[in-house]
Amino acid sequence: MGAIYILWLRELKRYVRSRVQIVVSLGQPCLYLLALGFGFGPVFRQAGHGSYLQFMAPGVVGMTVLFSSVFSGIAMLWDRQFGFLKETLVAPVSRMQIMVGRTLGGATVAVIQGTLILIICLIAGFRPQNWLAIPTAFLFVIMIAIVFAALGTAIGSVIKDMQGFQLVMNFLVMPIFFLSGALYPLANLGPIMTVITRLDPLAYGVDGLRGALIRTWHFSLPFDLALLAGIAAVFLSLGAYLFSKIEA
């Protein structure tokens, strides 16, 4: 447990000390929130769906957690390049502990980022229908962070160069975001789009967040939570296996 805590704390300290990273990482979610939230608001309202900001804010929170947690895998490539990963792997601790510590650290940073964006959404005018549902919303934030931090660790264990990792992340992350229903309802889609969106893990996280915060969902809260827990178990197992095979 000591090794897990130290690696978790290292990821957290590295994030807190990088003020530029904190500010820059909030830029894209704020752009989506302001440009789309207020830009498409009148159109969404005229269609009889209410406030687009209310609908979109949970999706922006999910997007922030997705980006932060997946790209936490980049840190592994930096550690590999500068030799820290090699020193970690030869330490007298199991690779499972190393992987769990790094994954939990990345997930914690993603939760902090999601919390900051939620605060910005509240300042912009978003209001949950029930403030008592905030803990349930944070449960979904945590699940999203764990799922995609484990995915980032798994991919970072396989890819050895920064350019390759960025290409894979751009190929995966943007489709995951746009197909999650963060920006549009999942109802009344065509058969092909329906199948694709149901294969997207983030769709269940965003649906759970939206259901907890504004009482609007496409599936159901228990189904979303159970499915996210199952996906988290699969990705953690995959990440642990791939990390056990890594060569510094």
From TrEMBL:
It is found in: Cell membrane; Membrane. InterPro entries: ABC2_TM, ABC2_TM_bact-type, ABC_2_transport, Nod_factor_ABC_transporter. Pfam families: ABC2_membrane (PF01061). One of its GO terms (cellular component) is ATP-binding cassette (ABC) transporter complex. GO terms for molecular function: ABC-type transporter activity. Residues 20-246 form the ABC transmembrane type-2 domain. This is Transport permease protein. It comes from Silvibacterium dinghuense.
